[in-house]
Amino acid sequence: MMTEWSFQVKGGNPLHGEVTAQRSKNAVLPMIAAALIPKHGKTVLKDVPDIEDVRGALELARIVGAEVIHDRQTHTVEIDASGVNNPVLPPDITQKMRGSVLFLAPLIMRLGSVELPGSGGCNIGERKIDFHHRGFARLGADVVYEDDGTTRINLKRAKLTGTLLYLDMPSHTGTENLMMAASLAEGETIIENASIEPEVVDFGHFLAQMGAKIEGLGTSTLIITGVKDLHVTEYTPIPDRLVIGLLAMTTGITGGDVVIRQTEPTHLRLVNAKLEQMGIQVTSPDKHTLRIQRDPNKHLAPINITTHPYPGFPTDLQPCISALSTVADGKSYIRERIFENRYDFADGLISMGADLIVSQSDVLIVNGVSHLKPAKVRAGSIRAGAALLLASLGVHGDVTITNVYQIDRGHERIEEHLQALGAQIRRVESKPATQPSLEPVN
């Protein structure tokens, strides 16, 4: 039995101070999965964020037979996969966490088969994983779909065989899964239309440090030469650009002067440019630091955004900049081109007094208002929850955000970071729950 939490926020305070960014959820999740491949030794991951999705991934690793040590004080994870022996992934975890799909390739490589009851994740639209399955099939695996939605994948022979693979969409989990499989396939594999997201590139470097031979990281064409084995390693994932983007925008909506340490500013180049268009000053005192400044007495300018795969504007930060635009001086146009249900935050913002509508052409049109108002809202997904949290900091009054589990899936102790910057926010117990919400669940 676990506790369900809410955030109580009293907004309207400009933020000031320094904060250190957490490491990337979307980089560390495939690393946890890949750590199941080596047959000997311990993989060590450093600066691992203590968030719900990481805990779920580590529990999956334990269930399939790995020994896992998670030191939350030092943010270190050690994974010994020598005892991996269970190819069946449990539905109570996979249906809540999209990242469970990343366990397909490692278990195929280690055990010759895998059974996936179904992968969850945020309810933000259709997120097919059939291109994962088609890729495994082209590499030589046997893929079977059961009537109950379960997928079973088995090796037809001792090893997969390298081939040409093409992704209809540059999916980061699809790219990562096929990178793992290709790394141990016989011969050469070419992956076309691969994701070039920073987290995918970082994961590629991690695989290379394990002994994989990968050419073309950072481009849409990957050439992978299969090796006999991958070995354990130690690695620190990149900073989380999505959490950094949220922190930057909180300064934008409240005003103030905030320094964010341990960042990779180049990963947010377009986001930073859009914030500057809105009247928020973004500078980089050094190559791993961002400084965000905004005069709270000056109005924000409206913005036009269209989401695209990297290096375009990230879909995961679209909800936050949409929330920011609710108090801009004018009309903003937000076009979501990745997921059709990414506007799942809209009703919450309307409850807080935002003036917005989704047009027939699926464009979010936001008419800026002078101020948002107190309300009680519910986080329906990681990014929707982040958007509502952002908006609440701009309210001159009290806001309650329920179902904080969703925010916790991707943000480690976000309320403590915001408190350190001067925000009035506290975590309170809502009610006991037997399990986290299975509604829209980065």
Give an account of the 3D structure:
- The protein has 2 domains: 2-22 and 239-433, Alpha-beta prism (UDP-n-acetylglucosamine1-carboxyvinyl-transferase, Chain), CATH 3.65.10; 25-235, UDP-n-acetylglucosamine1-carboxyvinyl-transferase, Chain, CATH 3.65.10.
- Residues 120-127 and 433-442 have low confidence and may be disordered.
- β4 and β5 (76-80) form a beta hairpin.
- By secondary structure, the protein is an alpha+beta fold.
- It has helices spanning 25-34, 52-63, 91-94, 104-111, 130-139, 172-183, 198-209, 241-254, 269-277, 318-325, 346-351, 382-393, 405-408, 414-420, and strands at residues 2-10, 15-20, 42-45, 67-71, 76-80, 113-116, 141-145, 151-155, 164-166, 188-192, 213-215, 221-225, 234-235, 256-261, 281-283, 289-294, 304-306, 331-335, 355-358, 363-367, 375-378, 398-402, 424-433.
- The strands form 6 sheets. The protein has a 4-stranded mixed beta sheet with strand order 21-22-1-23.
- It has 14 helices and 23 strands.
